[in-house]
Every structure is written in C-alpha cells, then in structure tokens.
Amino acid sequence: MDYNKINKIDIDGNGNIVLQDTNGSNITVNYNDTEEFNKLISSANKKLLSEIQKNIAEQERQHETIIKAIQNELKIRKQKSKIKTTLLTISIIVILFISYFAINSYLNPFSFIVSIKSSKNLTKNILEIKDDRQNIQITKGYIFINLNGNTRKEKINNEGKVFFSELPSKYKNRKVVFNLISDYFQLTKNKIFQINANKTITLTVEQKGLDRIFGSVRDTICFLDSVSVSIDKLETFTDKNGKFELIIPQNEQKIIQNVTFYKKGYKIKEKTIKPIVQEPQEILLNPIK
Predict the structure, then answer these.
(1) Are both 236 and 171 inside the same structural domain?
(2) Domain tally for the chain?
(3) Is the residue at 246 inside a domain?
(4) Distant-in-sequence, close-in-space partners of 169: CB < 8 Å, separation ≥ 6
(5) Residues 77-107: pLDDT tens digits?
(6) What's the CA gap between 180 and 110, in Å, rounded?
(7) How far apart are CA 147 and CA 115, in angstroms?
(8) pTM reported for the whole predicted model
(9) What is the spatial distance between Cα 241 and Cα 24, in angstroms, rounded to a whole number?
(10) pLDDT tens, residue by residue, 48-68
(11) Helix, strand, coil % (nearest 5) of the chain?
(12) Alpha carbons 13 and 10: distance in angstroms, whole number
C-alpha cells in the first residue's frame, strides 16, 4: 500500500492498525511487524508534517487577510475622523461668523424717520390732517414695515412723522415695503424705499373712500326716479329704480358731506352723510300735502 494515499486509520479489537487508502482498500498492520510499522510511522509523519505546513500556510493567509482588513478599517476611520474634524472646524467658523454678525447687529442698532406728506390736490378740510403752509400732513394712523417676517408698527405723531428706532444693523440699506393704516388715506404707488441710519423717508398719501355717495330714494309707496341728489354744485339724479351714485372730485372730498334730495311735489330733504362708511343710503321723501 502507498502510505501517502492513506485516507483513514483505525485500531481494531486486537490492537492492530487498520489502514484505508483513497481507493477504499484496507490493510491491517500488526504492531509487532516492526518493518511495516516503521513504514507506517514514517509515512504518517510526512503526511502530518505536510498537513501542519498546509495549516500554517492557511493560517498565515487568514492572518494577512485579517491584518489587511484591520488596516483598511483603520484607514477608513482615520479618513472619517479627518472629515469630522474638518466639518467641525467649518461648523465652528460658521457659528462664530453668524454670532459675530448677530451680536454686531444688536450692538449697533439704527434708526430712521418717516415723514408723511399729502398729494398736492389734497383738500384741507379733512379732520385727520393739518395745514403747515407748505404741505398737509396726516396726524393719525400707523405706518408698518415687514422685516423678514417681523412686523414693526409705529404711530404717526402730531407732526405727521413716524420714528423707527432700535432696528438691527443687518437691515441697513435694505429695500422695505411701507404700508399705511388709516381710515381716510392710502399711500400712493411708490411704497418701496431703502432704509438707512438717520435717513428721512417721505411717503406721499392720497385720500380714499371719500369719492362717492350712493343709495336709493323712495316715498312710502315706491322708489322714485328723477330725484335730484346734490352737494353744492355737484348733482346727479336717481334712475327709474330710484338708485343714485354721486361721484365727488378730490378737491371737494370731505369726511362729512351735506347732501340735498329734491323732487317736485316732495319736501326737500337734507342729510349729513359720511362717505367713508361706503354704505348705501336709503332716503325717504315725504310728499307735500
């Protein structure tokens, strides 16, 4: 038997060594057969040595694989650590940058003034204004601006001015939309201005809601047509349904208007009307008895 092809070694009940090769052939070696036993031992030693060498080589390969894997992992962790360090550094710089501007913004606030003027043809008999010989200034209402979602509202003082103060410096040189809260006035088209420290911004206003009166006229039975509706020299007439609308030019606009209603055969009626209400007027005329 070729002992290099031994596949299995057993001991039988008599203490003999039973060998099986790769072909499945069996041979029994008596431990008393010194020559055959020495061959077996010699062959077994060679095979054992070969297996040990193979195992050592395999273990070395496994160790190399493990070492390479560990080295790669350490390299990846080092790269990740470097990235984290870089990101942390960037984050700290950004935070410091933002903090600097935030602190600077609140440590160096600024103020500006809004002066409100009327348009040239604004009448002087509006209760909410006063005549300063050159301009008519509004003295009631509010101006508000929006700064990135934060609304600032300030009251118009008796000089027709508004003071905006303690604004963060980050809003310097910003373009801002101005809005007016007033019952009788509205801003003209130009509402966007650039704000800056100690700057005076002039807003121009025009009247609103005072340009017409409307409604209907009737007696106790039905609506009346051809009724004269007049304010001084302004005049209009009711239609066949008794309805009327009187348009008031800007230079004739007032908060309170004295309106006269007249139709032949009926008593003249005068009524004080506030156009700003913008509600239909229901007028009742009484016939002359």
Answers:
(1) no
(2) 3
(3) yes
(4) 104, 105, 108, 109, 110
(5) 888 888 888 888 888 888 877 776 666 655 6
(6) 22
(7) 20
(8) 0.45
(9) 125
(10) 456 545 655 676 787 788 888
(11) 30, 35, 35
(12) 10
